[in-house]
Each structure stands twice: as structure tokens, then as C-alpha cells.
């Protein structure tokens, strides 16, 4: 959802919520003293519908003192910040209140400059308390000069002039970073066109430019006091500890839950198996009985088919063979073959009679033809032989 942009000027507040590059909500409020500032910030944040959890606040030019030291002291950023804190009484107008300072060393061409800003610590602490009262996280608090270029329609290039309370603020920046701010009389410079989302607000667009820029980009300098930074660090550490404790509890509870669910699933599987076992056994018995029944029916059907064929074969043998042929044995095999052992006066004549039978195909004599005496036949012996032939499937 982004962050809520908040700009604080002397006696006024402006808040902007951006959604998909457009201004979704604008709120304004006023404050009279430091005690009223925290309540005004909390009240204004509570009026925002679907307010983001994060807030980026900036101080306008009438609450911030900006200084650019050129050339910069031979210091790094960390040392430069400590230098500003120690030399604040010389570099900035020192009032009755303590100042919060911050700065950054920048390179402009071949020169190094120290861009710095200072603000009243009481004002920054009041803003932090207001965000805390509203239940919001103050993500950043800095000078409006850092974010004003991102409220223009020209982008962050060159120099820009913005209408502020008390005149016109001219900001010079390089690589999207402000390095010099000057407060000029109104009409002394041509104003920079605002972003289209601000232009649609009319006269309110200029008053909300700083809040719009803060919603788009966090300020580079931080004007949070040591007390506010410490409170933020403590709050962050507390959240981290809470998250660590919650993670440890989850890592402890998750395996226990998994094991419990695994045991429960195993118990359910065993109960299901015990309930299903008798039914499975009964189904297997029914399947075996069905297989035996199918086998018996197949055997009976095969026997019926062979019975009909065998009867037709016997009928053909009875009518096709002459009375002088005596059938001694008849064997029908399962592969549609028949073997006939017989006695006849002439084996060749008997085979010729078998060849004329429609139920047999290609009869032939197996083995040797023997001679055997037949009682009542005088002195002549008959031929004893064995004939093998095929059976037509449809005699």
C-alpha cells in the first residue's frame, strides 16, 4: 500500500496517500504549540481511510535550517554527522531549544560539499509521539527539500523552484539528490510545474507538494532525535524478540502437531483396515467361488459340445462302415483327432469307407496291419489295424 506522506510546517499539517501514482486522499490540519502538534498528527492520521502502517514525514522550510558547506571538511559521512552535532551552535541559528542535525558529503563536479539540515528537537519528538499515538511506524523524518524534486513534473534534474510559506524555495540537485536550498522572495524565480496528480488539486497542490514527495520517496537526511531513534531501535528489537519467540514456539509446536496428526492418521488407517478386512475377505471368497463356477460352466459347456460331436461321430461310423467291420476301440482327443481300432476282412476297404464319412478328414493307418483269426469265419484271418483321422468341427 506504500507509505503515508506527511509534511509539517509552522502551524499547519498536510497528509497525502498515493494509490497507483494518483492522490487517493488529502488531509490538512493546524496546530498551535508543541503540545498540540502530537495530537494534531495523531488526529490527522486517524482521519485517513485505509491508512498505511508506515509514515514518511518531512519538515517544511520554515521549520528547517538548511546549510551547504563548500568546500566540505575532509570528513566521511559518519564523521560529518558528528561534526555537525558538535558545531551546530556555529553553523545554525541557535535558539532556546536543542537542535537535531544531519548531513551528507556529496561530490559536485570536482568539488566536495557538505549538505546539512537542522530542526528543533521538540518538534521532531512531537511528530514521533503523534505517529506512535496513532499506531503508525515513523519510517523517516527529514527536510522537505529532499523530496520536493519528486513532486515536480520535470523529474529530478537541474534546479526547481517551489512555492512555500514565506516565499519560494529554490532547490538544486544532482543525480536526484538535493545539495543546496535557498529561500527567495515570492516572484524571484519561475515556479517549477507540479506533477499532474498535484496539478489536479488546484491551489492545494502547492501546499501538499512536500507531503506528495514524501509519499513517493523517503528523505535522505534523518532529523529524528537520539531519543526517537533509541525508541525505534528498542521497538524494533522488541518486535524482533517477539517474532523470534513466536518462531521458536512454532518450531516447537509444529513437529508435535505433525507427530500427533501422524499418529491420528495411523490410528484411523488401522481402524479402517480392521473394518475393511472382513469385507475384503468376503469379496475374495466370492471371487474364488465365481471363478470356480465359471470354470465348471466352461467344462460343462465343453462337455456338451464334445458330446454332440461324439454322438455325430458315432452315428457316422455306424452308418458309414459295413457290417463286416468290427470297431474294437474309439478314442477322441481334445485336439479334434480320433483314433479307431478295428477288425475287418480288408483294412484298405475299411479305410476307403472311412474316407467317405463326412465327419472324418484324411484318415490314415497308424502302425502296421496285423492278422487275427476270427471265430466262425473259417480259416481266413482278418486284418487288425488302427486308423487316425481328424474330426470336422461341424460334421
Give a structural overview.
There is one protein chain. With 395 residues, this protein is an alpha+beta fold. The protein folds into three domains: 4-224, no CATH class; 230-268; 310-391, Gyrase A, domain 2. It has nine helices and 15 strands. The chain has helices spanning 34-46, 77-86, 88-91, 121-133, 196-199, 204-207, 209-216, 226-320, 347-355, and strands spanning 4-9, 12-19, 22-30, 54-59, 64-69, 99-108, 111-120, 137-143, 159-164, 167-174, 177-184, 326-333, 337-344, 360-373, 381-391. It has a five-stranded mixed sheet with strand order 3-2-1-4-8. Strand 6 (99-108) and strand 7 (111-120) form a beta hairpin. The longest helix is centred in the last third of the chain and has 95 residues, at 226-320. It is rod-shaped and about 160 Å long. The mean pLDDT is 82.
Amino acid at each position: 500500500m506504500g507509505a503515508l506522506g506527511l509534511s509539517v510546517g509552522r502551524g499547519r499539517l498536510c497528509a497525502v496517500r498515493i494509490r497507483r501514482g494518483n492522490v487517493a486522499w488529502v488531509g490538512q490540519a493546524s496546530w498551535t504549540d508543541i503540545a498540540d502538534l502530537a495530537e494534531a498528527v495523531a488526529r490527522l492520521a486517524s482521519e485517513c481511510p485505509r491508512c498505511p502502517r508506515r509514515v514518511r514525514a518531512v519538515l517544511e522550510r520554515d521549520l528547517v535550517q538548511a546549510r551547504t558547506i563548500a568546500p566540505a571538511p575532509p570528513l566521511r559521512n559518519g564523521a560529518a554527522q558528528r561534526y555537525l552535532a558538535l558545531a551546530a551552535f556555529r553553523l545554525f541559528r541557535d535558539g532556546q531549544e536543542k537542535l537535531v542535525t544531519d548531513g551528507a558529503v556529496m561530490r559536485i563536479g570536482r568539488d566536495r560539499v557538505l549538505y546539512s539540515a537542522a530542526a528543533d528537537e521538540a518538534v521532531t519528538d512531537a511528530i514521533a509521539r503523534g505517529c506512535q499515538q496513532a499506531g503508525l511506524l515513523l519510517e523517516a523524518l527529514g527536510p522537505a527539500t529532499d523530496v520536493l524534486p519528486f513532486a515536480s513534473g520535470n523529474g529530478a534534474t537541474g534546479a526547481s523552484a517551489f512555492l512555500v510559506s514565506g516565499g519560494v524555495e529554490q532547490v538544486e540537485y544532482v543525480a536526484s539528490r538535493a545539495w543546496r536550498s535557498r529561500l527567495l522572495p515570492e516572484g524571484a524565480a519561475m515556479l517549477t510545474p507540479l506533477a499532474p496528480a498535484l496539478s489536479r488539486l488546484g491551489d492545494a497542490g502547492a501546499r501538499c507538494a512536500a507531503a506528495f514527495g514524501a509519499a513517493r520517496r523517503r528523505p535522505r537526511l534523518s532529523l529524528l532525535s537520539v531519543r526517537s531513534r533509541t525508541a525505534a531501535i528498542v521497538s524494533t528489537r522488541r518486535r524482533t524478540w517477539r517474532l523470534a519467540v513466536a518462531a521458536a514456539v512454532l518450531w516447537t509446536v509444529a513437529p508435535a502437531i505433525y507427530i500427533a496428526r501422524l499418529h491420528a492418521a495411523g490410528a484411523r488407517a488401522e481402524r479402517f483396515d480392521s473394518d475393511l478386512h472382513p469385507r475384503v475377505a468376503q469379496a475374495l471368497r466370492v471371487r474364488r467361488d465365481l471363478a470356480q463356477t465359471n470354470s465348471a460352466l466352461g467344462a460343462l459347456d465343453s462337455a456338451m459340445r464334445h458330446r454332440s460331436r461324439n454322438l455325430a461321430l458315432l452315428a457316422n461310423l455306424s452308418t458309414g462302415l459295413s457290417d463286416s467291420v468290427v470297431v474294437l476301440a474309439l478314442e477322441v482327443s481334445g485336439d479334434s483327432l480320433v483314433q479307431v481300432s478295428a477288425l475287418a476282412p480288408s483294412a484298405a476297404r475299411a479305410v476307403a469307407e472311412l474316407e467317405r464319412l463326412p465327419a472324418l478328414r484324411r484318415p490314415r493307418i497308424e502302425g502296421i496291419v496285423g492278422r487275427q483269426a476270427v471265430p466262425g469265419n473259417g480259416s481266413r484271418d482278418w486284418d487288425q489295424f488302427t486308423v487316425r483321422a481328424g474330426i470336422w468341427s461341424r460334421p
